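User: I'm putting together notes for a lab meeting next week and I want to include a structural view of one of the chains we've been expressing. I don't have a solved structure, so I'd like a prediction I can at least talk through. The sequence is below, exactly as it appears in our construct file.
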Amino acid sequence: MRVVNDRPRPTWQAMRSAIRPSASILTLTLLAAPAMAQDDPETGEAVVEAEEPLIVVTGRGLDDPEAIAAYSVVELDREHIVSAPSGRIEDVLGNVAGFQQFRRSDSRSSNPSAQGATLRGLGGNATSRALVLLDGVPQADPFFGYIPFNALAPDRIGSIRITRGGGSGPFGAGALAGTIELSSADAETLRPVTASALVNDRGEAEASAIAAMRLGAGSLTVGGRWDRGEGFFTTPEGDRVPASAKAAFDVWSADLRAVAPIGRDIELQANGRVFRDDRTLRFEGADSSSEGQDASVRIVGRGDWEFDALGYVQARNFSNVVISSTRFVRVLDQRDTPSTGLGGKLEVRPPVGEDRLLRLGVDYRRSDGELQEDAYSAFTGALTETRRAGGTNSDFGIFAEGEVEAGAFTLTGGLRADRTVIADGFFRARDAAGAVVQEDIAPDRADWSTTYRAGAVWRTGEALKLRAAAYSGFRLPTLNELYRPFVVFPVVTQANAALENERLEGYEAGLDFTPTAGVAMGLTVFSNEVENAIANVTVGPDLRQRRNLPAIEARGIEAVVGLERGAFRFDGTLSYTEAEVRGEGPSLELDGNRPSQTPEFAASATLSFAPADGWLLAGTLRHVGDQFESDQETDVLPAVTTFGAYAQMPVTGRLAVVLRAENLTDERIVTRNSDGSIDLGTPRTVWGGLRWNY
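Assistant: Thanks for the context. Below is the predicted structure for the 694-residue chain, given as C-alpha cells.
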C-alpha cells in the first residue's frame, strides 16, 4: 500500500459567505484586489499600498503535527480509495496491515450491528476498538458502536490516515487500537460534476453523483449514492431450505458540505448527511435496517493562536427481525432502537516557537438510546414478551500534547484525563399481558481514567527514519454491550451491565526507508495488551455472555512496501500477529486461546498501471489466514486468498468505462461457522458501467 508522506492541500480563491454571494464577492475584492492607489496628503502623489493577502480555505482541520511520524501511520490517497474492486470503503481499509472487521462479510451481506473495526489483532468484536472519524467527527453508532460503512461512500473521500496504537488528543478515549481518519474530498478534487452508474452480473446496480462548486473562497458539495440488488445466497447450496433468502440490500445516502471563510484566517465547515440501509440475511423475513441523520459544524483558525472547534449531533435507529433456523418463523422483532450521539471538541495551539508545538483541548461525547423489541413463539406466532433496554454513556476529556524538534530528533508526548459516566441503565421485560417478568436497574457509576502516548523520531539521513513509541488507551463499553441481549439462533448472548472499561498498554518500534524516489518501505514491531477485553464468552450450551477477560495480548510485525516507476505502481502490505487470551478464574479455560475472528497472518498486494491521463488498471491479491469463530477455538473459518480487479478507460475527455471484479477466482469465503452452520461471503462478481467527469 502506498505510504503518503506529504498530502496535497488544495486551495482556491473564495468569497466571504456562501449564503451571501454579493457581499462575499465584495469582501473578496477588497481583500484580494491588487494594490490600491491613494494620494499622499503632503505631496499629492499617488502612493501604492501593500497588497493584502488572499483568504485561503482548505476545508480541513489544522495541519498535522510533525511528530505524528513517531507512530505507525499509513495514508491512502484518492487513487487508492476510488479503485477498490467492490467500490466499498471497508474493502479499501482491508488493504491496510492489521485492519480487521468483526466478520469477513462486507457491508452488503452482514448484519449492520456486526460492522466493528479494529487494528492489530486485538480480538473480534462487533463494537469498534478503532476510532473512526470523518472530518473530525466520530462515526461509531451511539448505541451499538458499529461503523455505518455503507454511508461512507469512497467517491466522496479525499484521503484516509490510519494511526495504529492507542490514541491521545481529541476523542482519544475511543482509540483503543488506533485511529482511522477519513477526510472529505474538496471541490477542486471532485470537479463540478462527477457521476457514475454500474451494474453487475447478478443485475445489482450502483449509482452515485456529486456536484461540487466553488463559491468565491468557499465551496459547496452535494453528493448522493444508491446501491440495490437481490444479492447472493450466503447459505451453501446443500444447506438451503425453501425459506433461504439471498442477501438483498437497498442502501442510499446523501451528503451536503459547505466551506466558507469567516475571517482572514478563520474558516467555517458545515456537514450534513442522511442515510438508510436495508438488508435481508439468510432467511425470508430476516430483515434489518439502519438509518441516520448527522450534522456537524467546525470552525478552524490558522492565526498565531491556532484553534479547532467542532460540534456534532447524530440521530440513529436500527431494527432487526430474527427468524428461527428450525421453524423459519419470526421469533424476535427488534423493531426500534433509537439513539442519539452528540459531542464536540475545542483544541488550541498557542504560539510557543518555530520548532515546538503545544496542543491543549477538551472534548465531550454523550450517547443515549433504548432498545424496543418483541419476542414471539416459534410454534404459535403469538407475542410472548416485550423488552426495553437502554441507558446513557458520556465522556469528558482534557488533553495536552506537545512536540519538540532538536536537529535530527523529534520528541513528542501527550496526556489525557477522562471522566466517564455510565447512567440510567435498565433492562425490562413484560409478558404478553403487560406484567413485568424481569426488571434490572443498573446503578449509575463514574470514574476518572488517564492515558498517554509518547514517541521519538530519529532521521539518520535523507533515506532512513527510526521511530519508537509507547502509549495507552481505553474504551467505554457501549450501551449494546451493557444492556442488550441478542440471539443468533440457537445461540443466546446475554448483556452485562457490570462491564468495566477496556484499557490498552502498548509499545512499538519501527523504521521508514526511502532509498530513492518512488520507493518507500516501512516495518513496525509492536506489543499491545488489552486488559478487561470485552468478549462473548461461552457459559453453557447455546449460551454466551459479554464478559471482561483478564487480557488479550497481541504481538506482531507490520510491513508496507510502495514502488512507483513511470506508469506502474506496486503497493504491498502484510501483518503477522501472535494474539492470545489470558484467562483467570471463570475464564481459565480460555487461557492461551487465540481471540475469536483474529487471523494470524494477512497480506495484500496491488499492482496498478496508469498509461495515460484518465486511465487506470489495477489488480489486488489479498490473503487472510485461518480464524476461529468463537472463544472456544472449535469452529474454524478457513484461510482464503482472493483476487480483485479495477479498470477505468476513457471513451472521451469526460466519459470513461469502468469495470470491476470482486473475488475473480470465485474462492469459497466462509464468514460464519457456528457448529457447522455456515455463511459464505461474496462470490465472483463482475461490474461494468460508466463514469462522467464534467
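A couple of points you could mention at the meeting. Helices lie at 21-32, 78-82, 89-93, 187-190, 479-483. The chain has one domain: 66-693.

User: Perfect, that's what I needed.
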